[in-house]
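Re: beginner question about structure tokens

> Can someone show what the tokenized structure looks like for a real chain? I only ever see the sequence side.

Sure, here's an example I had lying around. Input first:
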Amino acid sequence: MICRGIRVLVAEDDPISREFLEMILQQLGCLTCCVADGKDAVEKATTENYDLVLMDITMPVMDGIDATQAIRTAGLTALPIVALTASESGEDRDKCLAAGMDDFLSKPVDPVRLQDVLAERAPRTSTPAAPPEKPPRTDRQAVLSELGVTEDFYAVLLREFVRHTGPLIERLANAMTAGDAAQVTAIAHRVKGSAASLRLAEIQRLAGALEAQSRAGVARSELEDDAAALAASFYQFTVLIH
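And the corresponding structure tokens:
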């Protein structure tokens, strides 16, 4: 295994993304510990030994920026911390660097890029083998190949996606009714991230569009079509996998 024995702390609030990362890391030979918010990440990092931290930027209780600053303030200046971010903005990347992060992984995480980061940042990682050429993503088998998972495990992840996302879609409808733009943005962001991790392109696209529109302050009446399209796509998906 490429990274046998490397101890990785994963801080990621989305359960689908968290399970996916844990599976990929374990396939590479890493020893993993997963937490769902920045406060728990700080507690784990400062009381246990890790070789690398994968830190989501947007988390409840304490976000990744504050968690990283707390870890650095505690004296762990040499511990590699890698940001997990869906943002491509230079401003967000500057904030991560200023907080003390060492590197970035764009979400959805590419397993080959993750392997490269481990090889560069984790102190006991051996030189990774050259990654295989990726096939074009044209069907289910190509997605499995890109993610590096079996058909059975992918089916488990899809069922988990449905289980976790169903309540989010219901909360989205309530947030739309209440005119709670912050909640709409947060829910759309989370659905987008989960869908991206599993390469569910249409749900990812619709959730991303809704997030962008809501974040831009578009009126509720103009968001209704986007929210309805996302819900319809999700419910259609649930029928297809059962």
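Each token stands for a local structural state, so reading them left to right follows the chain. The two ends are 35 Å apart (CA to CA).
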